[in-house]
Amino acid sequence: MRAIGIVLAGGNSNRMKELSNRRATAAMPMVGGYRAIDFVLSNMSNSHIQKVAVLTQYNAKSLNSHLNSSKWWDFGRKQGGLYLFTPTITQDNGFWYRGTADAIAQNLEFLKDSHEPYVVIASGDCIYKMDFNEVLSYHIAKRADITVVTKQLGKEEDATRFGTVKTAADGRIVEFEEKPVETSETMISTGIYVIRRRQLIEMIERCIEEERHDFVKDILIRHKNVKKIYAYEMNSYWSNIATVDSYYRTNMDFLEKETRDYFFNEYPNIYSKVEDLPPAKYNMGANVKNSLVASGCIINGAVENSVLFKEVFVGNNCTIKNSIILNDVYIGDNVYIENCIVESRGTIRANTSYKNEGEPIRIVVEKNERYVL
Amino acid sequence: MSLSILLKKNTNRIKYLGKMIHFFRKEWYNSSIKLTRGDYVIRKEMIAMLLAGGQGSRLGVLTAQIAKPAVAFGGKYRIIDFALSNCINSGVDTVGVLTQYQPLRLNTHIGIGIPWDLDRNVGGVSILPPYEKSTNSQWYTGTANAIFQNLEYMEYYNPEYVLILGGDHIYKMDYEVMLKFHKANKADITIATIPVPMEEASRFGVVITDETKRIQEFEEKPPKPRSNLASMGIYIFSWPVLREALITLKDQKGCDFGKHIIPYCHERGDRIFAYEYNGYWKDVGTLGSYWESNMELIDLIPEFNLYEEFWKIYTKTDQIQPQYISKDAVIDKALISESAEIYGEVYNSVIGAGVYIGEGAVIRNSIIMDGSYIGDRTVIDKGILAEKVKIGNDCQIGIGEEAENKWKPDVYAFGLATFGEGSVVPGGIKIGKNTAILGETIPSDYPGGMLESGGSIIKAGDIK
Asked: In angstroms, rounded to a whole number, what is the distance separating the alpha carbons of residues B366 and B75?
């Protein structure tokens, strides 16, 4: 591959509510055994991008420990590798990353030292499968300066949390609005960009001079009339998980066979850090319906339309409905949980009940003492 | 010596979690590298030699294409994982795996040892197949002969002790504790033993010890056992002792530890001690014991617990996605591995990774290994299905009265229906008990759509 990768994984979102207290959005556990960033890293690895930088800032503890070895995504090579860049104080800079462009600017050496002609920039909080080579071919065929991967949202979906895009017939972007208050547009930017490396360096250097810090506002929108910025529309599954609602919905999408087959049973694979957990164990009284169960779980109760992440313990006579139980949660006996997301490493006391009362999805954070096990 | 004192000080000072210290200390303990005359001379305190070349013919069609240590166990594991995990958990980071029979699957499973953290700069795991020599070439003719043929490997690491292991038991054991016992007794050889019920002792090789645990006598399958300490086939040798014995007995035909090396050492008066191990230890040598020990994992609190944080068992995992349990599925007492898709009913069974169980299918008391496919409405009772077996719709397996297997009555017993790797059974077939199937079968292989109890159909592999 003739590109290097940059994954923007520094952000958190207040729309993730309590879930973002614990970790950056890119480190959110996904679909039982994964974390959100696995999807973009696997896409890059599968597209033969060998050198990838992950830019982190907000609460990167989970993310760092997840990325403590690059071998799971096959980046542990002599050529290239996986680079983690957190903000550091240097001779001429004492700031945190003040925006996406600033994050790249502070690591400009990485770009300058590389020899690959192109750069693929993507965010760490989107769930999709993509061959970046196809975007790159499109980029080259269009003689574009920047290619933005776009996605047509359904009518019912909220486009205002994304950048909306309007294209000419040939695919060139003529209008670009970042997080508009109201919009009738349904075509949005997925935050995946392909750009020539030297072009990017040039643009970033200009941003540094002018003290501008945001990639979308200060590069894409400002250049849309002078540079050829093209849209590459993707038609396959794509979901950004940066709100509680979309996080919940994306996980639940995997209860559909179609989604599972697309991500897991079709080439290429999605990789993740392997933890050596035993198979899930179903004891007497377990009654599991239409659910995803990760390894290391021990189930004694009823589970319906739910996703159980790794090492969840479900006590006797429990009922769990339409819920997401994150890693290593212990649920005591006779517990009722409906329409909830239970934060990881929680302990739910026996004989308690959690329902979404009013809110669409309730987030449960329980730090009780764990008596058993 | 100075290193261990230094580490002792550090462990006192730094209040890590107990477990962390355990591993940290062991790690350094064993990878000591000595400096002499400007060259780094590698010196490992103890290395392990893992015998994984056996076929395990009593596992029948399960080992038709793969060596016994590579047979799947407990859903996602393979039998060799237990010995390899014990090694790394005991701080033994140099392991030679001796392969001979059908090693392909074993080789791909072990690779460079990443799952067990045995990918090391110095040491790690090495696969040791028999090789051609300038003067003669031979297969491994016996356990000790196999070790002798890899004398160079051991000399390279120049260990103080050599641990000899088999790759076909299910257990968790700290070899370092055994090594301490070996050192404390100033032993030449230490044999791991396990107490067995006196009435079963006649099935094992037992040792008779004095009060200091020094072995006085050996008895192989004694009709009237005088001791219930059975040898587990795990030995620690002081390296010079092992080296000398192997070289002396190098011309012995089929040189074997139990039959030749140990008696030889015993005769010349070496200090041989019995280390008593008290824990779960299971030989999965027959289909019956293999089935049984899988079923034991399903118990509410199994004697052999895979769910403990301490002493983890590692394995190579390709599939990591969660399993899916459909809205019509029923699961009662089962172990189910990653990426399985269950649409039918599963009772009291062990299901491997990526297994598909169709709608209306009913699986009872069975072991289904990685990647197998069970068609809709198929009913299986007491079946052992190796990897990538495909059973069509509407089959009934494990039905009817028991009858002795006509081909190999001693192998295919216990009322089990056993399917070798990659076997295919077309739809609508009925299969009885004590049966064996290997290869792609077609409807005409089943007169009247039925394989009676005790029947076998072998259409693949070079199984005798």
From this structure: 11
Q: Nearest Cβ partner of B322 from A286, A289, A294? A: A294
Sorted by sequence, the CB contacts under 8 Å of residue B135 that are 6+ apart come out as: none
Q: Any CB–CB contact under 8 A between A29 and chain B?
A: no
Give me A236's structure tokens: 């396959």
Identify the residue whose tokens are 């944080």.
Answer: B309
Bridge-based pairing of strands B330-336 and B345-351 is parallel
Q: Does domain A281-364 have CATH number 2.160.10.10?
A: yes
Of the candidates A33, A281, A293, the beta carbon closest to that of B320 is on A33
Global pTM?
0.89
Inform me whether the pLDDT recorded for B101 exceeds 60.
Answer: yes
Given the candidates 3.30.540.10, 3.40.50.1100, 3.90.550.10, 3.90.1170.40, the CATH classification of the domain at A3-265 is: 3.90.550.10
The C-alpha angle A264, B112, B115, rounded to 5 degrees, equals: 50
Q: pLDDT > 90: what percent of chain A? A: 85
Instruction: Give the chain B residue whose CA is nearest to the CA of A299.
Output: B333
Domain ranges of chain A: 3-265, 281-364
Please give the Cα distance from B429 to B399 (Å, whole number).
Answer: 11
Average pLDDT over residues B360-369: 97
Nearest to B322 among A270, A271, A293 (CB): A293
Mean pLDDT for A162-168 is 95
Nearest-CA distance A277 → chain B (Å): 8
Please report, for residues A144, A169, B74, the alpha-carbon distance to residue A221 in angstroms, rounded to integers and kept in the order given: 15, 19, 57
Task: Sort residue B449 into left (φ over 0), alpha (ψ -120 to 50) or beta.
Answer: left
